[in-house]
Specification:
This protein is mainly beta. It has no helices and 19 strands. The radius of gyration is 14 Å and the shape is globular.
């Protein structure tokens, strides 16, 4: 991925579209991209530069905070990135771009199927989450803090929409965000 992703000083820039089809055969222990954000959050900022990650498959059915980024903490920013095709499967706090967003998701989109199960506890995410000019169009299936863009958002959503089909067993499943905790 060296010619596709350029990372320096905690900031990552996507330089080309990424075909992630090979992730369909990865086991639950493998993580895409190369850093595990499920517990510590995204390290800095990711600028997708309008590029698209296609056919990304994340299959971590027994884990919390599952998405391209499991957790975007209060200092993290994900912007100008698209996810097209593929699927994201996790236990709780599951979304295509972020399982738990306490940072910022800006001008991004996903057309990915998202699946999750069971609600156990409130996430230990950041605060002041922000989703702006973003959308989700994939199918969402689950029964606990599962969303098309983010499973959990801690803050403001503005100029966002979702059009995907939603099948859920409770009110914490949504086409865009599973639950927005703005206390």
């Amino acid at each position: 991925m060296g010619t596709t992703v350029n990372s320096s000083s905690g900031n990552t820039h996507v330089q080309n579209d990424i075909d992630a089809s090979s992730t369909a055969n990865w086991g639950a222990e493998l993580v895409f991209p190369h850093w595990d954000t499920s517990k510590w959050g995204i390290p800095g900022h990711l600028n997708g530069n309008g590029k698209v990650i296609r056919n990304l498959f994340i299959n971590r059915p027994d884990q919390f905070n599952v998405g391209l980024f499991g957790l975007i903490d209060s200092c993290g920013v994900v912007k100008n990135i698209g996810l097209s095709g593929g699927s994201v499967t996790g236990s709780n706090y599951v979304g295509s771009l972020a399982g738990c967003n306490g940072g910022s998701v800006l001008s991004s989109y996903a057309t990915v199927q998202v699946m999750g199960k069971k609600l156990y506890r409130r996430p230990h995410g950041g605060n002041e989450g922000l989703a702006v000019n973003s959308y989700a169009m994939g199918r969402v299936i689950g029964d606990g803090w599962i969303g098309g863009l983010a499973g959990y958002n801690d803050g403001v959503m503005s100029k966002c929409f979702a059009t995907g089909m939603v099948t859920g067993k409770n009110d914490t499943v949504g086409g865009l965000i599973g639950i927005n905790y703005d206390a």
